[in-house]
Queue: 2 jobs
Job 1
Amino acid sequence: MSNNEIPYKIYLEESEMPKAWYNVRADMKNKPAPLLNPGTLQPMTVEELSVVFCEELAKQELDNDTAFIDIPDEIKGFYKMYRPSPLVRAYCLEEKLGTPAHIYYKFEGNNTSGSHKLNSAIAQAYYAKKQGLKGVTTETGAGQWGTALSMACSYLGLDCKVFMVKCSYEQKPFRREVMRTYGASVTPSPSETTNVGRKLLAEHPGTTGSLGCAISEAVEVAVGTEGYRYVLGSVLNQVLLHQSVIGLETKAALDKYGVKADIIIGCAGGGSNLGGLIAPFMGEKLRGEADYRIIAVEPKSCPSFTRGTYAYDFCDTGMVCPLAKMYTLGSDFIPAPNHAGGLRYHGMSSTLSQLYADGYMEATSVEQTEVFKAAEYFARVEGILPAPESSHAIKVAIDEALKCKETGEAKNIVFGLTGTGYFDMYAYEAFNDGKMSDYIPTDEEIAKSLEKLPKV
Amino acid sequence: MSNNEIPYKIYLEESEMPKAWYNVRADMKNKPAPLLNPGTLQPMTVEELSVVFCEELAKQELDNDTAFIDIPDEIKGFYKMYRPSPLVRAYCLEEKLGTPAHIYYKFEGNNTSGSHKLNSAIAQAYYAKKQGLKGVTTETGAGQWGTALSMACSYLGLDCKVFMVKCSYEQKPFRREVMRTYGASVTPSPSETTNVGRKLLAEHPGTTGSLGCAISEAVEVAVGTEGYRYVLGSVLNQVLLHQSVIGLETKAALDKYGVKADIIIGCAGGGSNLGGLIAPFMGEKLRGEADYRIIAVEPKSCPSFTRGTYAYDFCDTGMVCPLAKMYTLGSDFIPAPNHAGGLRYHGMSSTLSQLYADGYMEATSVEQTEVFKAAEYFARVEGILPAPESSHAIKVAIDEALKCKETGEAKNIVFGLTGTGYFDMYAYEAFNDGKMSDYIPTDEEIAKSLEKLPKV
């Protein structure tokens, strides 16, 4: 099909939407390293995981063999409310750049959570409901994941308790109010409602909280409350599984128009978006059916792939969760305060870590001000104000398109536009005012943080 | 086609998108009353209007005869970036309400401006560019229109000067920063940059501004600066013309599935969304080809249709604009401070006013807390957090669907979901905290405000 026949936005028909998630682990020769029990250092069993997570999700977490897992009808119904998401042909961006490259982006921001997080939130809430639970607990930083989860729980009539890092709770009230509108209870963390919160408040009065503490509070409440489990929005295998819907739709849309991707680019924090976007493409690559350049983009201020170590580490600062083998900067690592976007997790999905270690994908890191320049450029040309996270991928996609301009190659570049920046306007304000700065951790800082790696 | 075959979201193909705007005035037997020169009280000519507005837009403003006006290719290209917008079948809402009614909503919020305003912003910016102008000026309250205009100007490389009511500029910095990201200059109004601003600041030091003053400043700068014109986001005939793209897409989507609307519901402030949504349906009604119940919904705190007078009035508080015949509460009327949404204009589109006076449509008004209850209900069921403005239509759509539940009628209810509430979270916070209240102006208040009607 000729180029001109590709519309600005490719929407699949409902009948073309994925009916099963794709589990890339099934096609991996080297499986991701298992989660370890932090006490025994033995691989976690479904039974052990089921204390914290819903049983079905614990099974999905450990299932390295089943390639396709049917999406339950209820979830498919929910997906139809905001999916399929468009695969956009960036005609305007191509023209502005003057590149022969063809640029496509999968836009996951057209829902009230503003990102792809909803894809896994509804799945996790569904399995909790199916297990007969009353509710779920989670933590959230700026609130993207918490918002998605509150929407999913509201839809299913499930209680949702969110621990929100206190500084965000106070300084970024908008997502907090979205969550409350969806009926979630939102507690600033650290709080007086948990042992870990009370302990921290006693030791550090006036602390504004951290993601690590919020995780610990959410896990404590989940484990200690009848009928509750804990859910997490990234990093885990189960999350990548659910997010494969992004890549499956992307591939179906490209296939529909006979387009073969050359380069696939995604931002990487914990890996949920990237893992989902690349899943079916990586599957072909693993099976030797096709080749793709796959690029993970991370911030220079939190460079787990590009400067971290591949080792077992704690998943949370509170060290209550299982150990995971991953590219990590150390569980104490916290990005500099001037770091605006998400992508602030110290580690990386075990699955993606193994794929990266095995050479199936590349990784690169970009500076914050460059990311916001790309974001502004993109917004003005393509009309969507992107999330800072997504803008990491935009920056590298533009760079690749400009390389094509030099070489004259008409490559097909696909990137993930994970969400919108509507709740990130303080960061944009800093950029607009010329007050945004970059921070790159020193080798010493990273080495110091890595000293606390568990001895496995 | 059977009901079950209608997808959750109907997206037209690009080839099915409207190629011309529809001018409902062409089918009106009683044309809307002409704009009058406030000095001479004679109908404004194109030449007179062209001092303030772009020439092509001045012509569109006065054209009561041409039924279809071709959409220029450049605008069609821009529309393809964010249109067609989906016509959503509200299956989840229907099920939750237990109604036999079929509910559809045209969702205009899936773009960074967050509303339908972009449809006219790009048209007005385009004609300004075509006329060789350097830029445009406008005013904005909370920033919806200013955001849309800044996006359109950025796309076309046109300068954009926005006067933003000072209290919004300071208290609602998010949309301000979106506008700045799109390269607009945003000035808090009143400002020291205009005569009218300086005068007001001298008389009322510390004033936080008003929409009326911001209009006056924007007009002063447009008229006094070489290569600039003033643009407006609602009320005007030209705006309703551009917004007809909403209704044309809606009708095409319904026709595609053989659905005949019974009731069409839209919120009404200045009338831009409502006028656009109903345009082709009203055309059929005017030509006697079909009948529809058409309902305008306004806030009880600013009830121009339901409690105003049909008379010539000033369009702005500063009395610098032409006089328009419309349903009005008087140009001094300002909704109570607790009024959260937009829809705060004292008057109503001349075109819609004439249609209402001639009995072609109904109007109703709803209380603020009821509107937010409907908004919350809708958000939880349909997954979209709606703008307060749009939620007026939601409230009445739900009421009509519940009437169908009583009578057992499977009516087709169509309403306009004009935008998202992501930048309205302070209002949602007040609602979530139980601090939202209603205000209904007394007859005396309205009568007092109407005392200043011009003698025409």
Job 2
Amino acid sequence: MEKVKKIYLAEKEIPHQWYNIQADMPNPTLPPLHPGTMQPIGPQDLAPLFPMELIKQEVSQDRWVDIPDEVREVYKIWRPSPLYRAYGLEKLLGTNCKIYYKYEGNSPSGSHKPNTAVPQAYYNKMEGVKKISTETGAGQWGSALSFACQHFGIECEVYMVKISYNQKPYRKLLMNTWGATVIPSPSDKTNAGRKILEMNPNSNGSLGIAISEAVEVAATSENTKYALGSVLNHVLMHQTIIGLEAEKQFEMAGDFPDIVIAPFGGGSNFAGISFPFLRHNFTSGKKIRCIASEPASCPKLTKGQFRYDFGDTVGMTPLLPMFTLGHTFMPAPIHAGGLRYHGAGAIVSQLLKDKLIEAQAYQQKECFDAGVKFAKAEGILPAPEATHGIANVIREVSRAKEEGVSKTILFNLCGHGYFDMSAYQDYFDGKLVDHHFTDEELYANLKELNTPIPG
Amino acid sequence: MEKVKKIYLAEKEIPHQWYNIQADMPNPTLPPLHPGTMQPIGPQDLAPLFPMELIKQEVSQDRWVDIPDEVREVYKIWRPSPLYRAYGLEKLLGTNCKIYYKYEGNSPSGSHKPNTAVPQAYYNKMEGVKKISTETGAGQWGSALSFACQHFGIECEVYMVKISYNQKPYRKLLMNTWGATVIPSPSDKTNAGRKILEMNPNSNGSLGIAISEAVEVAATSENTKYALGSVLNHVLMHQTIIGLEAEKQFEMAGDFPDIVIAPFGGGSNFAGISFPFLRHNFTSGKKIRCIASEPASCPKLTKGQFRYDFGDTVGMTPLLPMFTLGHTFMPAPIHAGGLRYHGAGAIVSQLLKDKLIEAQAYQQKECFDAGVKFAKAEGILPAPEATHGIANVIREVSRAKEEGVSKTILFNLCGHGYFDMSAYQDYFDGKLVDHHFTDEELYANLKELNTPIPG
């Protein structure tokens, strides 16, 4: 029988339901709190920002949630995504571990983000929303939402972190091609933006600031809602399509992973591939290790504190129970812009607190080393975010070797690096810098927080 | 039954043989001539440049040529490529034509070029070649060959047209990532390059000049061969994997094309998708229209002359029977760098002369209009080269409407445009220029040619 490099599912095998891990978690997540009253918020508190169907999904305890046919139709542009066996990387590493990766880079915007952008745009459309505002860092989320809004005929306004806006004109242009308006953040279009610019007219912006702006626009404009590309429960759930497909593909391959790895920003990448496998730990006693690979420049999982914190910098969002470095923490300027976020979503935070998942932190040089190895061995040039997962795989392979065991490892190759070539240029030019925070630097923003610590 | 957007083949369905149209052409191609003696060249004349297996393929009359297992293994990184039904574009155009496209942009370098780069590197490897020199314009071919050489452990030296080298640093970097050396052409490393620089120290270079340099390096260095990304018979044959897969996919869809369309530079893109369908015209009396879409800035098929001409600017290659504008013709600086070549391959030229295929020329503004329409309707951002095919599809759809008929149209979406965002920037900024050559300008270089005119 000939060696199978990648396992494709037919289109009809695209799952018809997402998996909602809230149905199976041993301990439920703590509720979000209203920042004024410190009381749990209700659906009506979120209604100015999100369509009701997404609010329902946010708190749903149903194990399976139907994927609308209209969403599945759009998924067909790039889904099911292929599951690859990394024969090339295995050979290069000289390992007897089996390495698989799920490749999400064939989507229109080149990452896993459209998996949630499409249903979010769809539910907004169904509830008569005319415009969606959002933020974007490196641009993956903004371009995914632009694509999705274009499809459903919704206006899209993207607040893009100013330093990325200036450094990544092509990502901006991609959003324009799909009809979106892109505004460098902080901007003078919102109170939040003006407040930041007053304090620092030269502010380069941050994801937290851009969220403040986009939320304000949605909260104060007619027929306008807000969309977030990670962190929230419904976003994580939409991404489970990745792991659910992978499950079927492993069945076809007659194999099953011992370890599942994904890069970690706010949680959607990691949740997407790992939650359907974690389910087996909860329901059938498996012991799959699920590892989140975060950047050492923003180590909320490995060094943060579990407490209530804001999702944005200015403090406009509800308080979420999260592993956080404080909502004013400024991550080092690494190239993996998608991972530069101060906190982790509530579900992932609860799972980590309960020691049901693991986390590891990686410096960017090690990541780019891994990324270039991967490009040579497998042909695909990974996005800087994705290289964090690859670095993690390489460490786990070393560990297996030391322990004299063979493991089956799955990781999420969440996107390609074609829009991130300047990062590779810096790598080859020896300009990449690893940033080592002192504990004092890491915890400075937490000390000033006066939000509740759970438990 | 649910609507199928894209048709995937399983990996085991990757064809085991390429299709060699030379076996079925009503009139064979004329032989290449030695530029000194004007006599047909033999295998020994090509031996300094190519491994013997590729020379054999160049003149083979066998209908089917086996694809080596080692090549099929590498193909598995991105093949079989999906065949899409363009429901979105059909809707946007309001047509009752059925539009399909074969998408080659999921390959490591983002275009169809690795289909031939991989076997070329493989045959060189088998014959002990240590280094391959080549040229590249926009960079698609250079990056494909870099990837292939990296895989088989061969050194790769790419002469990149200087203006592209300066304007497209990311394509260069991609080649570097796969271990290739990239040299701006004209360079002072070759006699050909020095000769050009003497005449014009500020030369921006051209594909023809870069070919001269790469050919010289191969002809004068130990264990070094040359590789070409289009034009030659064996290159065209390797690309037939595209059309052969599409044939199987149409069978799965229970459909068959009336019209097959592809962008045209040197012929490999067009040959790749159309030759397996032309076979049905030759062998079973079908009347599929196969249309080559060339740029109006380099209209060799629609305005060129059928005569013997050189493949390069300096005049180092054998003379090939081709539709040409003259080997010193300088195409207008359009963004579709991959189509800026003065001549067409011998097979395609013979087919056009025999009126067995058609050609149409397109200005770049019409092409980018079509490309942006496509991105909005289908989600995928096409390469500038690919937009020529899309513009052609749109015209054929109009024609079908005028004639009150419904056609099934297939085109080759040969690559994505993620490395060509600056072209889209120019488009959105209104900076794209259409160039209208006068007949005098078009034929100036032909007049000076003293090569034979066949027949």
